[in-house]
Every structure is written in structure tokens, then in C-alpha cells.
Design goal:
Shape: globular
Strand order of the largest sheet: 5-6-13-14
Number of strands: 14
Largest sheet: 4 strands, mixed
Order of helices and strands: HHEEEHHEEEEEEHEEEHEE
Radius of gyration: 18 Å
Length: 242
């Protein structure tokens, strides 16, 4: 796959055409929380899995520290308290499980992405619900692009594998299963979503190219995990592998 060519295609995406596709099907978030929670898979409970870029992890470290100053997942008295200590890397992100194997001492091997960290129940650690079951994100303003653009994705080589149905005739825009689809959306909101969708496609391809360029195999021992991202090889706590 020529990632440079795909990156050029992503950069050439027309925001207006992406917005047309989004507007044609319509979308409004119902705050059901389905995209933020773990689910029951064929082999049992599956945790929430959403890709996050390295710089997004760092942004969430700062944002999460402000909303969760104790670092215990319970939030704080003042969500705008900027004096909160930044969260640890592993409190925000975890190694993407795909590609890892289960050894005697736990998961081990090499993987090539980070996923948002989850709580004990498998939900995104930043997800919470009110007494009426309405979902909310504690770091909504700093949420990753994959969250900002859900349930839509762009089907280009090197981007996240599309799992939904094509929305446009070219099959570039895909819509994943979501109860918010089919609801009215304003042109302004459709264009805002389209811009984020284009940015995500570009970022995914830049990250994929960076991973390819930076990759050097690392021998892992029992219970050891290495994550290769565009910045190089890292341990699960985000520190570099020397």
C-alpha cells in the first residue's frame, strides 16, 4: 500500500461532499453511551476499544487530571480545576490488544496502536452516566477524533477498517451502527463533523506512515508488551524503549 498516495487522497477530500453524505443520512447523539461502553461479544464481555493518537493521550493526561484530580476515576468537586495533577499515561491509554498473545504472565508481544483505557467494567474510563442513564464524557472538549467523528469513518487504505455501511455512492463515507443515525442534522453541524472526519483520516494515515518509518522490531519476554507508534517503541506506561 502506498501510504503517501492515500495521504494525498485524504488531504484532497472535499469537506462539502463529506457533509452531503452525513446530511443525507442524518445524525444526532442520543447520549445512549453504546459507543463508550464495553459489550457482550461472542466469547464473553469485550472492553470498549477506541484508537487514540500519542498527542491525544498527552492532551487527555492534562484534561483528565483537571477533571479527576485524585486520579481515581471518581471525578472532582470542580471539573474546571486546572490545578489537578496530570494523569499517568497508563491511566489514559492501554496497548491495543490486537496482535498481542496471552502468555503465562499476561498479554505479551508487539502491537501498533494505543486504545483508550477502560474501567473495571470495560467502559471507557472517561464515561459516566447520570441518575437517568444519560451518558456523558468527562473530557468531552478534548475527546479523541475517533470519538468526535463516531459513528462515521472514511474508507481509505491505511485508515481504520470501516465496519459500517456506505453512505455515499463512492463508498468513502461509512456509517457504523448507532441509534442516533437517521435524525435531523443541521448543515453547520454536518460540515463541522465532516471537517473532523477529514482531519481524522489525515491523522490516521500520517500515524500509519510514521509507525512504518519508525518501526524497529523489539524482542519481548514473558509478560512484556511493546507498542510501536509514530514516535517509536514504547512500554505500556508510555516511556520509550531504549
Amino acid at each position: 500500500m502506498d501510504l503517501d498516495a492515500e495521504l494525498d487522497r485524504a488531504r484532497d477530500l472535499d469537506v462539502s461532499e463529506l457533509a452531503d453524505a452525513i446530511e443525507s443520512i442524518g445524525f444526532e447523539c442520543t447520549r445512549c453511551g453504546a459507543c463508550c461502553k464495553g459489550y457482550e461479544g461472542d466469547d464473553g464481555p469485550e472492553p470498549h476499544t477506541a484508537t487514540v493518537f500519542p498527542d491525544e493521550v498527552r492532551a487527555l493526561q492534562e484534561a483528565g487530571g483537571a477533571t479527576d484530580p485524585d486520579g481515581d476515576g471518581t471525578g472532582g468537586d470542580d471539573s474546571n480545576d486546572e490545578s489537578g495533577t496530570p494523569m499517568e499515561w497508563r491511566d489514559v491509554a492501554r496497548p491495543m490488544p490486537y496482535g498481542l498473545v496471552e502468555g503465562d504472565d499476561g498479554p505479551e508481544g508487539e502491537t501498533f496502536e494505543w486504545a483508550l483505557q477502560t474501567s473495571a467494567c470495560g467502559d471507557c474510563r472517561f464515561y459516566e452516566e447520570d441518575d437517568e442513564g444519560q451518558g456523558a464524557c468527562r473530557v468531552h472538549e478534548d475527546r479523541p477524533l475517533i470519538c468526535e467523528t463516531y459513528p462515521f469513518s472514511v474508507a481509505l487504505g491505511g485508515t481504520s477498517q470501516p465496519m459500517g455501511e456506505a453512505v455515499d455512492e463512492e463508498g468513502v463515507v461509512r456509517a457504523h451502527e448507532c441509534e442516533g443515525l437517521g435524525r435531523d442534522i443541521s448543515r453547520e453541524d454536518a460540515e463541522e463533523l465532516a471537517r473532523a472526519l477529514k482531519e481524522r483520516a489525515v491523522r490516521e494515515l500520517r500515524e500509519a506512515r510514521g509507525v512504518t518509518e519508525a518501526y524497529e522490531p523489539v524482542e519481548t519476554g514473558p509478560g512484556e508488551v511493546v507498542v510501536h507508534d509514530s514516535e517509536g517503541a514504547k512500554r505500556p506506561d508510555g516511556t520509550r524503549v531504549q
